[in-house]
Amino acid sequence: MAGVLLLGVAVVALPLAAAAGAPFLDEQVRAVASRLRCPVCQNESVADSPSALAAQMRELIRARLARGDPPEAILDYFVARYGEWILLEPPRRGWGWALWLAPGLLLVGGLLLLARYLRGAVRTDEADKYDREVPGA
Fold first, then answer.
1. What is the pLDDT of residues 36-54, one digit of tens each?
2. 37: nearest Cα among 67, 2, 79
3. Helix (H, G, I), strand (E, B), or coil: what is residue 61?
4. CATH number of this structure's domain 1-89, picked from the four choices 1.10.8.640, 3.10.290.10, 3.40.50.300, 1.10.260.30
5. Could you report the per-residue pLDDT of 95-128, keeping only the tens digit for each?
6. Given this model, what pLDDT does residue 45 score?
7. Has residue 136 got a pLDDT over 70?
8. Burial of 54 (0-12, 13-18, 19+ CB in 10 A)
9. Distant-in-sequence contacts of 73-80, Cβ < 8 A, 24+ apart
10. Nearest residue to 58 (alpha-carbon basis) of 42, 72, 78, 41
11. Fewer CB under 10 Å: which end of the chain, C or N?
């Protein structure tokens, strides 16, 4: 009798435990899929893409996470298969650093050029003002 009761509890508890873990697995799938570019619609992440290939990629991510693979191993799998362009964020090494630093450096350089130009324009106006005030100039 106790064995039947234990079996009944197990039959009810296992699906409930699996359902409780599903939202966490969904969050993990979304986190990994949002770091990957969809090969079909390349301006969207795999998490947001409606394409059939993206759906297959999400299912593969889900299966590998359920199997216990860490997210970085899953990303490495897709990089090995598609190349680094599959990552939405370029890696921060080698030329990847240049991609991360370029916008900031260009902004600072542009601001320095603008300041230099404006400073020269102010000096020219002041020089013209003094030329007009000095008699015989």
1. 999 998 789 999 999 999 9
2. 79
3. helix
4. 1.10.8.640
5. 666 777 788 888 999 999 988 888 877 666 666 6
6. 93
7. no
8. buried
9. 74/32, 75/32, 75/35, 75/36, 78/36
10. 78
11. N
